[in-house]
């Protein structure tokens, strides 16, 4: 059933539109609103698949209804109808997000074609939104523990926003995975996610890496070069191990967050950037702040949303799922038959002290697939999984 709302102050026109649309398809359920204010209230409180809205109405005109409705529920197609049609009005409503513009009295075929097209477009938008929520298999987050379920819930709530996220947790727990989930579930997913390992870049080069440089700004700068912030424009930049970033680079990152502008090393020209920042660290940044190694103002800019990824030892109930996941993935990569793990083998893995976390578990599973028997036994664990 497709719910269609007709917002029109003239009762006779409402009746005609309702009759035409309802008779076209019995799956069309048409509801009415006699003015813009009531129509907007109905849009707020109901889920409609299409809205037909007059422009000249009492209490609130159609253009205002269009603007406000698009902010509340941007996915609803809205077709504007007017008896005072002109090109400027049509262009303005389309610019504001209207699906189409029809003059009164509406041509019957044009009206019904527009209704069909708008409803089909709504289905495509919903499907695209659903597909966006699917994350690449390369970054699948495996686990049903309370800790992992909590992280997934946070991601669902914040992914579609531009809120900055700080991901904390020990090495090997999957902080990068969380960052990819945030990006791939966001509206920025079609734009790039640029990763920067702050710990792997020498302190004297980090500013050039992040913000770019101009030719001659330092020895070896033979040509102009764009930085990672520019490369991530309209997308996401992931600052991994941000606790290892130099204080001078931190100051520039802070400015980029405050002003959405950066400048290349050796240049005084500002470049506007539209970037979502996700950062991660295995350090306690509050301790780093106390010891003067990290800027407190930058911390508060980054930590709008905090996500702590637990150590594997704190989510041992996920180990059977992780073993199955890695076994299937590694076997596929290597083109080998999938091995099984005995109940006793899984129990031993759950008792293991995983200082290297998920990364270590994957390595152990790969070793067992290569060296273990067809069914990996407790004895295989003792032989090949020991440190």
UniProtKB/TrEMBL annotation:
CDD domains xrefs: AAA (cd00009)
Modified residues (4-aspartylphosphate): 54
Protein known as: Response regulator
Domain Sigma-54 factor interaction: 141-370
Keywords: ATP-binding, Nucleotide-binding, Phosphoprotein, Transcription, Transcription regulation, Two-component regulatory system
SUPFAM superfamilies for the chain: CheY-like, P-loop containing nucleoside triphosphate hydrolases
GO MF terms, alphabetically ordered: ATP binding
GO aspect biological process, one term: regulation of DNA-templated transcription
InterPro entries found in the cross-reference section: AAA+_ATPase (IPR003593), AAA_lid_NorR (IPR058031), CheY-like_superfamily (IPR011006), P-loop_NTPase (IPR027417), Sig_transdc_resp-reg_receiver (IPR001789), Sigma_54_int (IPR002078), Sigma_54_int_dom_ATP-bd_2 (IPR025943)
Domain Response regulatory: 3-119
Pfam families: AAA_lid_14 (PF25601), Response_reg (PF00072), Sigma54_activat (PF00158)
């Amino acid at each position: 059933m497709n719910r269609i709302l007709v917002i029109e102050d003239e009762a006779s026109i409402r009746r005609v539109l309702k009759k035409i649309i309802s008779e076209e398809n019995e799956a069309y359920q048409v509801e009415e609103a006699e003015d813009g204010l009531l129509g907007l209230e109905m849009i707020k409180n109901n889920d409609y698949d299409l809205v037909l809205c007059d422009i000249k109405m009492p209490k609130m005109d159609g253009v205002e209804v269009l603007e406000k409705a698009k902010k509340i529920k941007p996915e609803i197609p809205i077709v504007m109808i007017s008896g005072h049609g002109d090109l400027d009005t049509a262009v303005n409503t389309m610019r504001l997000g209207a699906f189409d513009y029809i003059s009164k009295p509406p041509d019957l075929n044009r009206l019904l074609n527009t209704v069909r097209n708008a409803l089909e477009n709504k289905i495509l938008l919903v499907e695209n939104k659903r597909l966006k929520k699917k994350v690449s298999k390369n970054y699948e987050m495996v686990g049903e523990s309370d800790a992992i379920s909590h992280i997934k819930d946070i991601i669902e709530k914040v992914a579609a926003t531009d809120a900055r996220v700080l991901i904390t947790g020990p090495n090997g727990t999957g902080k990068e995975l969380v960052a990819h989930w945030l990006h791939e579930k966001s509206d920025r997913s079609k734009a790039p996610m640029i990763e920067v390992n702050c710990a792997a870049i020498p302190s004297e080069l980090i500013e050039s890496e992040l913000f770019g440089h101009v030719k001659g700004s330092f020895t070896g700068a033979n040509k102009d070069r764009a930085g990672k912030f520019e490369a991530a424009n309209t997308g996401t930049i992931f600052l991994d191990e941000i606790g290892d970033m130099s204080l001078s680079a931190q100051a520039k990152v802070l400015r980029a967050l405050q002003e959405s502008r950066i400048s290349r090393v050796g240049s005084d020209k500002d470049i506007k950037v539209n970037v979502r920042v996700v950062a991660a660290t295995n350090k306690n940044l509050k301790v780093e702040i106390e010891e003067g190694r990290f800027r407190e103002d930058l911390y508060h800019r980054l930590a709008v949303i905090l996500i702590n990824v637990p150590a594997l030892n704190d989510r041992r109930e996920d180990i059977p799922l992780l073993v199955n996941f890695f076994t299937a993935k590694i076997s596929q990569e290597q083109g080998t038959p999938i091995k099984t793990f005995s109940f006793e083998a899984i129990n031993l893995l759950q008792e293991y002290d995983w200082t290297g976390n998920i990364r270590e578990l994957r390595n152990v599973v790969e070793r067992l697939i290569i060296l273990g028997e067809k069914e990996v036994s407790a004895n295989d664990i003792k032989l090949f999984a020991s440190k």
